[in-house]
Amino acid sequence: MSQKKNVTEILHHLGEEEFPFGAVSPPLFQTSIFAFPTFEDFRRALGDETHNCLYTRGNNPTVNLLESKIAALEHGERAKLVSSGAAAISASVLAFLKTGDHVVMVRDAYSWAKTLLEKYLARFGVEYTYVSGTDEAEIAAAIRPNTKIIYLESPTTFTFLLQDLKAVAALARKHGIKTVIDNTWATPIYQNPLDYGVDLVVHSGTKYFGGHSDLVAGVIVGNTADIEHIFATEFLNIGTVPDPFMAWLMLRGLRTLQVRMRTHYANALRVIDYLAQHPKVEEIYYPFYAKHPQYELAKAQMRGGSGLFSLKLATRNEARVAAFTNQLRFFKRAVSWGGYESLVFPYAVGHPDAPDHLISVVRFHIGLEEPELLIESLETALKAI
């Protein structure tokens, strides 16, 4: 692993020693190609695109600066920026699989991670097994001789189930299996899976890294060998290119990542404290809610939480869930999360045939607004149930 640096040093200083003209903001290299002074320099770059800026489909100085900061934040050796979170998941998984291999994945993982297995890799003879992830014995039982990847998401981002990262990583190493985890929810501000022995960390940079709901990106972090393998196979060949301007926007977003995460966390706890006492709320799904069944594990492997949680309303009537949602002020009805704004996403919106026990599950993202405003909005909306 790379030498660990202070978060402030990474966000505000790492890689910024020699900006031209004494610029404070990182330069934007909005260029598709790079020229070379000599034949020999040109040949050298063509022969080693992994370590040279030749064509922005491979490397770009703005992109590389962002990658160095995210790698340091995650205590990894290298990072690779890609065009979306789904691209990060796909590249990190595809790079280590072939026909006949097997994947173990947590059942409540991001839907596009599951789609990768069910709709894409299944076409090429890759098998998979879903597990809850909360029981190490269940994961061990799912491992086969041809298992090559264990895919984790801790916590999951609708039901907020955790995996014991240290235990799962040790189990995987014992069997020579690669581990990949989606760490978007906690961010490296609050969780560093590589420290527990996980091999690769993926993020949707669209969310907290960007922080302003104005970009789409993904990131993969790991050791140098794994990242260079992904670069040479899935990244260059498939072309999940990160745009330099998108990288520049994310560099801007990173400046405030630590401050924003503290506010998201504090606001979420304040709102959850209110909701937990309300008679029309049956259950709260949040790892740092004291009644979460894995609360102690959350405290052991994370330093804090984000603004995303779910709750179960005291109704099984979709019309009432819809009325509650429509009454909410200061909450936008939208997919995704991780920006400055508060959001609401009822499970039933995307699942018209949801079973009764899921009809009333609603996911919230608590943004940077004053929590009192959000609580006032929730109080009014809960009267609709």
Structure description:
With 385 residues, this protein is α/β, with parallel strands linked by helices. The protein folds into two domains: 7-254, Aspartate Aminotransferase, domain 2 (3-Layer(aba) Sandwich); 257-382, Alpha-Beta Complex (Aspartate Aminotransferase, domain 1). The protein has 16 helices and twelve strands. The chain has helices at residues 7-12, 39-47, 61-73, 85-94, 111-120, 136-142, 165-174, 187-190, 224-238, 244-254, 257-276, 295-301, 318-327, 347-350, 356-359, 371-382, and strands at residues 78-82, 102-106, 127-131, 147-153, 178-182, 200-204, 218-222, 281-285, 308-313, 332-333, 343-346, 361-365. Strands 1-7-6-5-4-2-3 form a seven-stranded mixed sheet, with helices on both faces. A five-stranded mixed sheet has the order 8-9-12-11-10. Helix 7 (165-174) links the parallel strand 4 and strand 5. Helix 11 (257-276) runs parallel beside helix 16 and helix 13 (318-327) runs antiparallel to helix 16 (371-382). It is globular and about 75 Å long. The termini are far apart. The mean pLDDT is 96.
Which parts are unreliable, with pLDDT below 50 for 5 consecutive residues or more?
none
- List SSEs in N-to-C order: HHHEHEHEHEHEHEEHHHEHEHEEHHEH
Give the end-to-end Cα distance, rounded to a whole number of Å: 51 Å
CATH class of the largest domain: Alpha Beta
- CATH homologous superfamily descriptor of the largest domain: Type I PLP-dependent aspartate aminotransferase-like (Major domain)
How much of the polypeptide forms β-strand, as a percent range? Answer: 15-25%
Q: Tell me about the biggest sheet?
A: 7 strands, mixed
Rg from C-alpha positions?
22 Å
GO molecular function: homocysteine desulfhydrase activity; methionine gamma-lyase activity; pyridoxal phosphate binding
Family: Belongs to the trans-sulfuration enzymes family.
EC number: 4.4.1.2
GO cellular component, one term: cytoplasm
